[in-house]
TrEMBL record:
Belongs to the ATPase A chain family. GO terms for cellular component: plasma membrane; proton-transporting ATP synthase complex. It is found in: Cell membrane; Membrane. It comes from Pandoraea pneumonica. This is ATP synthase subunit a.
């Protein structure tokens, strides 16, 4: 925790507020400020992306036509699942889209999995290496940061627009913007355009907000469980029940959170396929 918080025992509000602050390049004063960079989100996003690529590369490097090992079998099952989903959703060339969906699933699953680490572990490690005075805040889960999830959503939006232009051509894409869904009548061009622009914005915002909301809520529950364990003292009093409750609740929530981690990665992958598949369809 920060130097200021380390000088006295923080109350529950200070404890939670501290853990929900990112290591930012500067203090944010406006709702939207693109000049601010959350360094912890950037670091862990890139690190998990590199780890995901490394794991998939290792699986491809050690692939054999004989009896596969556990790791190869797990990766083959994952690849087959993604391939089947992309085949049923995207009607067109999937040479890039299927690997994209696989990358999204692995990347988001790894970022979500960081939420299973103890909430105070990053602060402890930072203190052990002597960087506590420099790194005063650190959030280890990139998908619990709205900037990270909306960044992924904007990337999906760019791919949607790219495939819309590529498949339909500039003329076909513009024609669809002004004629769908109500038809090709000049009185309906403006309503059609507004609805299509709202649809693109809604898809992007909902894609990012859905992942952020689930992971932020999970992170907050872990913090509340950590506070439950913090009431325990070594005396022979009822506060020992806080530690017992902390262990039981923490274990139960961590097991349940494994499902959330994988489910949110799967939903992100599926929505990416659905949105890019819609870019292949003509209205």
């Amino acid at each position: 925790m920060s130097v200021e918080a380390g000088s006295h025992a923080p109350n529950p509000s200070e404890y939670i507020s501290h853990h929900l602050q990112n290591l930012a390049s500067s203090t944010q004063t406006n709702i939207v400020d693109f000049s601010i960079i959350n360094w912890d989100t950037m670091f862990w996003s890139i690190a998990m992306g590199a780890l995901g690529c490394f794991l998939l590369w290792m699986a491809a490097r050690k692939a054999t036509s004989g009896v596969p090992g556990r790791f190869q079998a797990a990766v083959e099952m994952l690849v087959e699942m993604v391939e089947d989903q992309s085949k049923s959703i995207v009607h067109g060339n999937r040479a890039f889209i299927a690997p994209l969906a696989l990358t999204v699933f692995v990347w988001v699953a790894l970022m979500n999995s960081l939420d299973l680490l103890p909430v105070d572990l990053p602060s402890k490690v930072i203190g052990w290496v002597g960087l506590g005075s420099i790194i005063t805040h650190h959030r280890i889960v990139p998908t619990a940061d709205l900037n990270g999830t909306l960044g992924i959503a904007v990337g999906v939006l760019i791919l949607m627009l790219y495939y819309s232009f590529k498949i339909k051509g500039a003329g076909g894409f513009m024609h669809e913007l002004f004629t769908a869904p109500f038809g090709n009548h000049f009185l309906l061009w403006i309503p059609n355009l507004l609805l299509n622009l709202i649809e693109f914005c809604a898809k992007t915002v909902s894609l990012g907000m859905r992942l952020f909301g689930n992971m932020y809520a999970g992170e907050l529950v872990f913090l509340l469980i950590a506070l439950l364990g913090g009431i325990w003292s070594f005396g022979a009093d009822a506060s020992v029940l806080g530690f017992v409750g902390h262990v039981i609740a923490g274990t139960a929530w961590a097991i349940f959170h494994i499902l959330i981690v994988l489910l949110q990665a799967f939903i992100m992958m599926m929505l990416t396929l659905v949105y890019i598949g819609q870019a292949h369809d003509h209205h």
